[in-house]
Amino acid sequence: MDSQPLDSDPITGQKPSDHCAVIGVVGDTPVIDNIILGLRTLQHRGQESAGIAVYDGSIIKLKKGMGLVSEVFSHREQNLSGNFYGNVGIGHTRYSTQGSKNLENAGPFVVSSSTGYLAVSHNGEITNAETIREELKRKGSAFLTGSDTEAMLMEIARDVGELGIYPGLKIAMGKLRGSYSIALMINDTLYAIRDPNGFRPLVIGKVDNSYIVSSESCVFDVLGGEMIRDVRPGEVIEMTPKRYTTLFQIRPRRISHCMFEYVYFARPDSIIDNIEVFSTRIKLGKTLARESPVSADIVIPVPDSGRAQALGFAEESGIPYNEGLIKNRFSERTFIMPTQMERKTAVRLKLNPIRSVIEGKRVVLVDDSIVRGNTIKHIVSILRSHGAREVHVRVGSPPIIAPCYFGVDMKTKSEFIARSRSNESIREEIGSDSLAYLSIDGLVSAIGMEKDNLCLGCLTGKYPEPIPGQIKIRQSELENY
Ligand code: SF4
């Protein structure tokens, strides 16, 4: 297991990162263009690697590479002529939470079995992957990677091979623990499968004569189609060019949708479990303004993550909103820079204040979340050095105090500035005049879902699923490192 070094990027590297994006398309025409466009739409969910597997009528063709979707699949002619000419396929972008960062661990994963070819794209994290891997090894299976996704696929292939598709998938899902929203291809048929807790989003839709499963609904808008519905927790949907059918639904042990999808991960133009992400973020900002009002002259967001919450804060408080920080869009992938330059300079390269907007002003600085606090600390300092009279930090989610075991790269407790510290000591550290986080009740009411149907594990340290011992042991090894 590895954990993304949170200091790798001065802006995005400070945020918790989601595991992956998945897409699957089945139709009566070649699917490669829709898969590539869909993956590009979902690029925010993972920038480390991209991959596509297409069934061409006899075998599955696979290509994956490190980098952005546009880099890995840059030439349409090559994509089509490169044996990607098929009417069913799946795609994947990755941001690792388990397995090392190399091509071997990139998705999709493909295996040839007695059932034929199976390929899977996975968003989430299988918490009992090591147990599954060891059991399968004892039965003779061999593994090429340390990926939890490979362990899951091998389990599915074995159970489906022994029992058939319907009972095999049911048995495999009974063994898997943790989070998995997957696009699974078994020969020419596509399956959309969501774990019984429904941690990560998964939706199905229709574009022309194709059915599509995707991590987020914004894909259907971009492709000119429409969303049909969310895949329900524990549901397995079989998709062919002509129809989609629920094969079965495992009764959820407990529904626990990840609250961070609404706070930060998902695109604002997506709808997850019938709740629009953008309007939820506005509500988070409004609730924050009601809970922690402040006298100030201007509300500015940390771009882009705090923008919707800042709009909500401004609307509710009546304090004018303005863009006081300009983000450099063309230095997105400067991963090496922070190790070579002073961190403050690296933040400045990404974000520069507009002096006329902030000079002499009492500023409310809004971000969606704080993990380590380094970035917000430097932004506060930059705002002060550009003439801000006061800087009041408002955070559109509660303090993060505990690791995530369900597909987000927050693994070591030492990463969290808010762990075991008072609000006042955090305020002192980041150098703001005041600091306030959204409350857990405020978060839940803004999302508008039953509290019991949300995962709040990283906010409370109480998880909706037991965490297998090996993962905790690996975590303490990381902390002692
Ligand atoms: S622990 Fe936090 S980030 Fe992980 S699934 Fe739960 S709410 Fe989401």
What would your notes on this structure say?
- This protein is of the alpha+beta class.
- The chain has 2 domains: 12-257, Glutamine Phosphoribosylpyrophosphate, subunit 1, domain 1; 275-480, Rossmann fold.
- The protein has 18 helices and 23 strands.
- Strands 3-2-4-1-10-9-11 form a 7-stranded antiparallel β-sheet.
- A hairpin with a 2-residue loop joins strand 5 and strand 6.
- The longest helix is centred in the first third of the chain and has 16 residues, at 148-163.
- Residues 1-13, 333-340 and 476-481 have low confidence and may be disordered.
- The site of iron/sulfur cluster has 11 residues, from helix 8 and helix 17.
- Iron/sulfur cluster (SF4) binds at residues 199, 258-260, 404, 406, 408, 455-458.
Topology diagram in text:
Blueprint (H helix, E strand, L loop, with lengths): L19 E7 L5 H10 L7 E7 L4 E7 L2 H4 L3 H6 L6 E7 L14 E5 L2 E11 L2 H10 L9 H16 L1 H11 L2 E9 L2 E6 L8 E5 L2 E5 L3 H5 L3 E5 L4 E5 L4 E6 L7 E2 H7 L5 E2 L2 E2 H15 L6 E4 L5 H11 L7 E3 L9 H4 L2 H8 E3 L1 H4 L3 E6 L6 H12 L4 E6 L27 H8 L3 E4 L2 H8 L6 E2 L1 H4 L8 H12 L1
Parallel strand pairs: 14-23, 17-20, 20-21, 21-22
Antiparallel strand pairs: 1-4, 1-10, 2-3, 2-4, 5-6, 6-7, 7-8, 8-12, 9-10, 9-11, 12-13, 15-16, 18-19
Helix pairs in contact: 4-5, 5-6, 9-10, 9-16, 12-14
Iron/sulfur cluster binds next to helix 8 and helix 17.
